[in-house]
Structures are given as C-alpha cells and as structure tokens.
Specification:
Blueprint lengths: L17 E14 L2 E7 L4 E6 L5 H7 L7 E10 L14 E12 L15 H6 L1 H4 L3 H23 L3 E2 L17 E3 L7 E3 L5 H9 L4 E9 L11 E10 L3 H20 L8 E4 H8 L13 E2 L10 H8 L3 E7 L7 H13 L6 E6 L2 E3 L8 H11 L6 E7 L1 H19 L10 E5 L4 E4 L4 E4 L12 H5 L10 E6 L2 E8 L4 H10 L4 H15 L6 E7 H9 L29 H6 L19
Parallel strand pairs: 6-9, 11-17
Antiparallel strand pairs: 1-2, 1-4, 2-3, 4-5, 7-8, 9-10, 10-22, 12-13, 13-16, 14-15, 14-16, 17-20, 18-19, 20-21, 21-22
Helix pairs in contact: 4-6, 4-15, 7-11, 9-11, 13-14
C-alpha cells in the first residue's frame, strides 16, 4: 500500500489517526531546522512537519528533498499550532507528524517552475507532462472528464447508443484537407482520417440504429488558431424520424446536464432562436455575441436620395448602408482608428468612415455631405450622444454586415465591454443558406455539407435553381459568440441527393466513386434523419474560462502542428517508406546491385 488517504481528505476529525500519504513535494520550508513539506497529489495538499527534536534522522532526510521529488510519508495526524492554520486550504487545520519517509523518486531541477505561468510556450509543450501537474490544468482535465461523462449519461437516458466508426476511411470532399494514410497492402492507394463521421452516421441510420452518438476523434489538415487543432474531439449525434425541434430539445437537455455536472451551473432553456439573416442584420455575424449592445442599424431609407456619392452609390448598386454606435468611444486614438480601418479593408471594405460626437459637434470629413433631415434621422436611429463614435459600412449586404460585425467585436475588446462575471448566453441560429458562391471556383458550394437538405418551403426554389434564395434545414448552437455545435436534417432520398450533387457541379462519375456507398444505401430504405455535432474541446474551453482549446487537451499540437514533446511529425526509417512504395520528392533513386549474368 502506498497511501491510506489522498492529500485533500484529512480534517480535524482525523486528528490522532495513523495515515500514509504519497505524492510530489510541492514545496519545502526550513524554519530554524524545522522542515515543512507540502505533499501534493491530484486532489490537493497536506503539510508534513519534520522536527529534529522528534526524529533527527527523518529531519535530516527531509532536508534533502526538493520540488517534485516523489515521496511516501507515514505518520500521525495532528492539529496545527494555534495561529498557524491556513483557512485557504481544505487541510489547513491539520498537519502530519511523520514517523517514516520514503523517497520513491528524485526529480532533476525543473525546466520551469510550476507555481508560475511559464512564458515560453515551446518549453511548456516540450514538457507537457509537467504543465499538466499544475492545478489549473488538472482542473481542466477533470472538468473535461465530467462533461464527457454527463454527455454519455444523458444520451444514454434518452435511448441513444454509442457506436464507434472507423478511423481509417476514404478521402471525400468535405470542406477541409484530409490527412492521408498510405496502404502497404494496396500500394498507391490511401486511407483518409475522418474529418467527421458524417457518412458513417447516416449509414447507421439506414442500418436502423435510430439513435446514435459517439465522442469521436476527427482530423483536419488546416492552419491552426486558438480554437483549432489538427485532431479534435466531437460529440456526434444522429437520429431517425426526428424534426429540428426534436434536435433542439435534445441538445438543450444535454447542455444543461453537461454544465450542471462540470461546474454546477444552471443554464436557461429553451434557447432563443435567430435566423441567419437576422443574426447578420443585427450583429454582423452568424455566431453573434449578445453580451453587449452595439447592434447594426440599417440606414438605407435615410440615404436613399443622399448627395453623398459613397452612400448613394452603394444603395443604387443594390447594396446597403449600415452603422454601429460605439457608445463613449469618441476618444478613439489614431492607432485604434488605423487598426479598425485595416480590419474593415481585410473584410472587403474600401475604407472606414466614422463620426465622433464630442465638444457638442459631430467631427468627420463626411458630415458636410449630410443634410439636416439626414442628420436628424441619424441622431434618432443611432441615439447619438456626446462621447459616441459611429462607424459606417456602405457595400453589398454581406460585406457591410461582415465588416461591421468584425469591427463590433474588436471595439468591444478595446472598450472592455465583455461582462466581468460569467454570463451564459445560448442561442440557436437557424435557416442558413443552403449554398454559398465560390468566385475562385466559379461554382456553388454547400454552406454546410452536401448532405444537408433544403427547407421544405424552399424546394420549388431549389428545383428552379434559384440557389441564392434556398435555405437549408440547418442550425448552429452558439454560446457567447462562439459556435459550439451545428447540424442539419439530411437528404435521404437518392433522387434529391443526385440533384444536390448536380447543383454542386459534382460529376456523375465522381458521385459514384466518392459517394457510391451512400447512394446505394439510400436506395435500400433510408429513413428521414438528422443530427448535430459539438466540438467537445471548444465547449470545455468555454466552461473552463480558457482562451485556447490547447488548455483543455492533454497533449495538443503547437501553432505549427507539432508535438514538441515527442518531436512529431518526424522522419521515418527509409525501410518503412520502401514498404509503402513511397519515395520522397527530390530523393535519389536507390541504387541496385548488379543482378549477375542471366
């Protein structure tokens, strides 16, 4: 036996007991020869006191301990001396008087201290196992565990069955670059790691599983950012004979269970719903953050007959004029204005016009182009007051919404508008467009994926190929401006799926080679079905209050998609490449020994 108790369980009621603890040396203090050792395990800390007058040999041994040595201590639980209690520590009323100390393993000097936030990210990632010893990351992993367990428990209670789907799959166009795995047995052919179990879960519906879920590993070969990794974990759900309302109710119940189990947080259900168009109209984003105001205001009617050519020209070309009022932001600096202008240009604007209300007047080069009725309308619609700063966008609807949506978020950061306490603002965004136009490819692409069905009310528009007007039976769930999940009702009729492929310019031969298995299944009795998927890493990141999903993953990659701890990706033995019939580009052909006379 290594221990009778963990390092967070002993209390006043245990005084006098003989106990045994095991863990890491969290810290040592020498007070005039009396050695205080804090022993740490996953659960917490317990203080052990070595007094020379009680056991000189043990005190001498304790004097050699340093941080992160692994030890075992046996001894008696005693009350701390009056005035030395630690009210911030659950075990702060007691200490251990040892009668035995075993050093199980010595630790070399650490590459960084565990009691401070390391500044060198690469150093942290190289020694990730040390990073995970810190209380913050231990807590995050426990919250992740509780979230995953609550997911399984809730879905099980609703009749869902967890089914694992293959990791070695087939490369199909699903929106991101695949990770490919060469086949040794079939040279020249490749598996792909799944971007999501999308086709498999639809096949499970054809198989009659009816209620499927999986906490699934997914892989996408994409550039990284704070909430993206090449491999990530998805809560994947699919069900037969359901409507969107069924999925909404299931999701809300599951998220309520997750938040309750993970952090004892009660969330409000049902969630609000916004259409895709309303979300962009009001917030400039299909994942709106509603924790602060600053909504977009349409000024089309105000400037319909304007003499200001920029606004009038945008409206005459079928575009819009929109604005946001950043309350109290008239003190905007030149640097802030330059940054916001660059953001606007990056997302399609030609520039950025704004008005500052200060010293009793409106200050901007464009104010001289406005007549009195226009100024009055602006004042009324935007509630412009002293100290405000109004930003404008005049362009196509999509561009104007995107630009002001991006500015809105950045201005909120500059003004520190995010609420100081936790607010959990969930909402559904529904009625997404079914298609989006790709100017680079000169064709229509699926906004979600090619298996999403059109809304029943838009089926005629779909048949008439009025693709910009066709809405999808698709939905996203958003939390505090972050998309945490998305899904749709699926196409299950082979004829409709063929029409969808045709709309996406996928040729018949490609349909058969890439999706033939799915189309054949649809011809053999596929039920109506739909589902949703959640990024577990992203969801846990929000629950933990972290800024990056790397901080809730045990062994993430860095921003170059490298695992510095194991130094992967890495070169492989040339023998392995030969077995796979692969030669690296630029590598010289292998020399062959003469085969001798024939």
């Amino acid at each position: 036996m290594y221990r009778t108790h963990d390092c967070n369980s002993l209390r006043k009621t245990d005084i006098g007991k003989q106990v045994m603890l095991a863990g890491w040396v969290n810290g040592t203090r020498d007070h005039g020869g009396v050695i205080f050792i804090d022993v740490r395990d996953r659960e917490g800390l317990t203080q052990v006191v070595f007094r020379p007058e009680e056991n000189a040999e043990l005190a001498k041994q304790a004097h050699t301990l340093r941080g992160e040595d692994v030890i075992q201590v046996s001894g008696r639980v005693a009350a701390r001396l009056p005035g030395t209690e630690n009210p911030n520590l659950p075990t702060g009323d007691i200490e251990i008087i040892p009668n035995e100390l075993r050093i199980l393993n010595r630790a070399d000097p650490l590459p960084f201290p565990l009691d401070a936030e390391p500044q060198n990210e690469d150093l942290r990632m190289t020694h990730r196992y040390l990073d995970l010893r810190r209380r913050r990351f231990a807590r995050n992993l426990q919250i992740r565990h509780r979230a995953a367990k609550a997911t399984r428990d809730y879905l099980d209670s609703q009749g869902f069955v967890e089914v694992e789907t293959p990791i070695l799959s087939k490369s199909t166009p699903e929106g991101a670059r695949d990770f490919l795995v060469p086949s040794r047995i079939m040279p020249g052919k490749f598996y792909a790691l799944p971007q999501a179990p999308q086709q498999y879960k639809q096949l499970l519906m054809v198989a009659g599983v009816e209620k499927y879920f999986q906490i699934a590993k997914c892989f996408r070969d994409e550039d990284l950012r704070a909430d993206r990794q090449p491999e990530f974990t998805q809560i994947d759900i699919e069900a037969s004979f359901v409507t969107p309302d069924d999925i909404f109710a299931l999701t809300e119940g599951m998220l309520a269970a997750i938040f309750k189990a993970a952090r004892n947080i009660e969330i409000k259900t049902p969630f609000d719903r916004l259409t895709y168009r309303e979300a962009l109209e009001r917030f400039g984003s299909d994942k709106p953050d509603r924790r602060f105001a600053m909504e977009l205001v349409d000024l089309g009617e105000t400037f319909r007959e304007s003499s200001f050519k920029v606004f009038r020209g945008a409206l005459d070309a079928g575009g819009v004029v929109k604005a946001i009022n950043a309350k109290g932001f008239a003190g905007i600096t030149i640097g802030q204005a330059d940054e916001l202008t660059e953001i606007a240009k990056l997302h399609g604007a030609k520039g950025l016009a704004f008005i500052k209300a200060e010293s009793g007047e409106w200050k901007s080069p464009i104010v001289k182009f406005f007549n009195d009725p226009e100024k009055t309308a602006l004042q009324s619609k935007l509630n412009i007051e002293e100290g405000d700063c109004v930003f404008f966008a005049a362009d196509k609807w999509e561009v104007a919404c995107e630009v002001l949506g991006r500015l809105r978020l950045r201005i909120a950061e500059m003004q520190e508008l995010m609420p100081p306490r936790e607010i959990w603002d969930f909402l559904w965004v529904i009625d997404f467009p079914l298609f989006e136009w790709s100017a680079d490819e000169n064709k229509w692409n699926a906004m979600h994926h090619p298996f999403t069905r059109p809304k029943a009310g838009d089926m005629l528009l779909f048949e008439e190929r009025k693709f910009p007007e066709v809405r999808a039976e698709a939905y996203d769930v958003v939390l505090n401006g972050v998309e945490i999940g998305g899904g749709s009702m699926r196409i299950y009729e082979p004829e409709l799926q063929d029409k969808m492929f045709e709309a996406l310019s996928i040729k018949p031969n490609d349909r058969e080679s890439q999706f033939g298995h799915l189309l054949r299944a649809f011809r053999l009795g596929a039920p109506p079905h739909g589902g949703i998927a959640f990024g577990l890493d992203r969801l846990v990141m929000l629950i933990c209050g972290e800024q990056s999903i790397r901080d809730v993953m045990a062994f993430p990659k860095n921003n170059r998609a490298m695992d510095l701890m194991t130094q992967s990706p890495a070169e492989v033995d040339p023998k392995q490449l030969r077995e796979l019939r692969i030669r690296l580009a630029g590598a010289a052909p292998e020399s062959r020994a003469p085969s001798g006379p024939k």
